[in-house]
Design a protein that fits this description.
Two copies of one chain form a homodimer. Chain A has 113 residues and is mainly alpha-helical. Helices cover 64% and strands 11% of the residues of chain A. Chain A has a two-stranded antiparallel ribbon with strand order 1-2. In chain A, a hairpin with a 5-residue loop joins strand 1 and strand 2. Chains A and B meet through helix 1, helix 2, helix 3 and helix 6 of A and helix 1, helix 2, helix 3 and helix 6 of B. Chain A binds a DNA duplex (30 and 30 nucleotides) through helix 3 and helix 4.
Chain lengths: 113, 113
DNA sequence: TATACCAGTATACTAAAGTATACCGGTATA
DNA sequence: TATACCGGTATACTTTAGTATACTGGTATA
């Protein structure tokens, strides 16, 4: 049994990550972008159920935290492309861990039926 | 570049996990319990900033999803102890990944100052 | 000519998360 | 006798997350 202080120290970095990727949509968006750069409407289709308002807001948050890059191309009309930054790509270990656990969890749920 | 369908399949298990551990408090609570069984008031201190109302609600959610166990001991007055279930313990890989990334993120933030 | 695509914004709303503060009855401690 | 601990609950509130629906102006397509 370790000290309470040690435990609090341990929690801190996790809280920092949660501040950035918390919520229903941010990780799904990042995963979608890990499959390739996407335009707004493509994301809207691939992140099932998200509304344009939420997508717009979440993309802004992710860009602010430098996890994704928004590129505007000078076409007519302008086209906008979203991509993962290198920093965003470094979240893949987190996503892998979540995904592995999620798959186990699904199996557990189905096994019960 | 993979298919959109493949991407959506990839997202699904992650959304399942998020349904269970989403929010500001659940992971901190689980981490605290990973350091040893705790009583209600102990958790209230160790998960800094949480109010008893939120703690109570989150503990109920976590218990419902079988990630933690609530044991009531027949003392006078009764004492209540919370512990991680085996299933809850299996989240350690997720927590490790989050923690590692969080530590890197902190370093990045401090490096900027 | 009508329709659809693009990258969102506008408005209005509901639901959930989270905060603040006070309180309970019973027990143990000072 | 006063205070603090225990495991919470009660009430009231604010903030954030999320939903629903409609719309924009310019372009390309049928």
């Amino acid at each position: 049994m370790k000290s309470s202080r040690e435990c609090i120290e341990y929690i801190r970095p996790v809280r920092d990550v949660l501040d950035i990727i918390n919520g229903k949509w941010k990780l799904p968006i990042l995963i979608s972008l890990s499959f390739g750069n996407k335009r707004f409407k493509e994301l809207e289709k691939e992140v099932e159920g998200i509304t344009p308002k939420m997508l717009s807001k979440e993309l802004r948050d992710l860009e602010m935290n430098q996890l994704i890059i928004r590129s505007v191309y000078d076409t007519v009309p302008v086209s906008v492309e979203y991509s993962l930054s290198e920093y965003g790509k470094s979240l893949d270990s987190v996503i892998d861990a979540l995904r592995e656990w999620g798959k186990k969890h699904r199996n557990k749920l189905f096994a019960k039926l």
